[in-house]
Amino acid sequence: MIVRAVAAADLAAWQRLYAGYAAFYGVTQTEEMRARVWGWLMDPAHGTEGLVAETDGVVVGIAHYRSFARPLSATIGGFLDDLFVGPEARGSGAAEALVAGVADVGRTRGWSLIRWITAEDNYRARGLYDRVAEKAKWVTYDIKL
After folding, report:
1. Could you tell me what percentage of the chain is helix, strand and coil, using 3-state DSSP and rounding each to the nearest 5?
2. Given this model, what pLDDT does residue 68 score?
């Protein structure tokens, strides 16, 4: 299992996996939306970055992350926005490797933590998350704009 930065040559695999991620969460996602996110990932000036997990030359998982300010602690943290492993590679260690890859980026950059959210009923992923991280006490709210 190799975890590395997403590259231009990963476009087709990334599109397949990102569409699968949207379908998993029941989110309608268009090609235009995927093109916008891909543009962010390919733009070094944009804050969103990505990793891929690759097995035998095949991209089997993706992770998107970004930094965020933590004013109360006067530190910078990392936010793991999206994590998805294709059904054919679940149980392979790809998800854990991607989380570890984002954590490695954070250590290198001096981030104070990596934070992410998941659906309450995402039990399979939560089994991994409970093993590799501490469940936060914070409740999340959204205002739709």
Report:
1. 40, 25, 30
2. 98
Residue ranges with strand state E in the chain:
2-5, 49-55, 58-70, 75-85, 114-115
The pLDDT of residue 6 is 98
Averaged pLDDT for residues 85-108: 96
3 state SS of 81: strand
Burial annotation 48-69 (CB, 10 A radius, 16+ → b, else e): bbbbbbbbeeebbbbbbbebee
Structure tokens at 36: 């916008």
C-alpha closest to that of 84 among 135, 12, 24, 5: 24
- Supply the pTM of this predicted model: 0.94
Residue 127 half-sphere exposure toward CB, CA atoms < 13 A: 5
Angle between helices 94-109 and 123-132 (to 10 degrees): 40
> H/E element holding 95?
helix 94-109
pLDDT in tens, 7-50: 999 999 999 999 999 999 999 999 999 999 999 999 999 999 99
